[in-house]
Amino acid sequence: MTEKEICRLLAERRYRELKTSFGEMNEVDLADLLEQLPEKEMVMAFRLIGKEEAAETFSYMEPRQQQILVEALTERELKEVLDEMFLDDAADVLEEMPANVVERILSTTDAETRRQLNQLLSYPEDSVGSIMTVEYVDLKPEMTVKEALTKIRRVGIDSETIYTCYVIRNKKLLGIVTAKSLMISDEAAVIGDLMETNIIKVTTYDDQEEAAKLVRRYGLIALPVVDREGCMVGIVTVDDAMDVMQDENTEDMALMAAIQPNESSYFETSVLRHARSRIPWLLVLMFSATFTGMIITKYETAFAAIPLLVSFIPMIMDTSGNCGSQSATLVICGMAVDEIRLRDVFKVIWKELRVALVVSSTLAVANGLRILIMYHDVRLALLIGLTLVCTVTLAELIGCMLPMLAKRCRLDPAIMASPLITTCVDAAAIAIYFFIATRLFSL
Q: Is 0.85 topped by the overall pTM?
């Protein structure tokens, strides 16, 4: 079904047909489809979706469309949507809304829900507490399997996941037990004997990216969250972890392109906002490139003596910059998945040094042969060959060390990506090139 078909059916008031079609669609696809509709038709179509599906669909929509719906729905309709949403999804919605819209949403919730939402909203933006959900299944260690399954059937519909249950006494997390182990165990077995006590957990103020990495590393469906006293307060589910990883990857890609990260989508961001996010880094890189110009100016006499030297500058700068970017990208990716850590700095340098020698030697030989064939000048071929070996090796080392230095300074390693490394390497490459040239040609 397309947006044109929906608009046609709405105009013809064929609401039952639309409701049936919506009921057969996946909520993610339905959210994408509704976002393509004009505002009036989007609100009308949303009202035709079933209560449970409507809440799920609403959670997948963009903040701008969510705000339109919040302002258009009645108090009763808004309450029905919020009642069906998990608290972490509702908190995510509130974070993106203006204050007046948040006030209206909270006014439709009961006191306990409002308290839980305010608690979730009080955590720092990038903390585990800001993405966790407080809807989980908790069991007592003295319960039998039969009692546990009875409770799961009773409260499971309001829990984000029932596959992993948490064994708690006096709010302290004692262990975990899976639904699978409950189903294959004797009904008289005691939960305390079945639970796993080797628990992987995080605290509410831990970085959300670290939680996402734990979920990915250990293949978890949910990760328990405790406060500073060790009391169980919520869980981070795998879908929330995937959202965090996506957001972090998007942010890293922006930083690697020397663009300030922006939470809004590309088309929803204004032209001025796009420009404002790019200009600061471009100014920094532009003015830092003046060092390269100063080095070139210093060797004007070499240009005058051998004008051909100028023609090799772009190739040397591009090659060294590309090599540095390759090295930096691999190290940043390795650090993102915890394959490379700060303690591995010397192992990384040793590996990149060996890679650089192989790469630079190959490039030097290839260019040396090309220059001999084209210009029949051994000294020129030797100049380019030596320059490539030195600049590529230096670029590879700079590329691998700068991201690790950023991490050591508690900065995002992605900052030290292509543009910044290229700018640093360009100046070094030109200095090395003319230093060798002046020695070989006695300039």
A: no
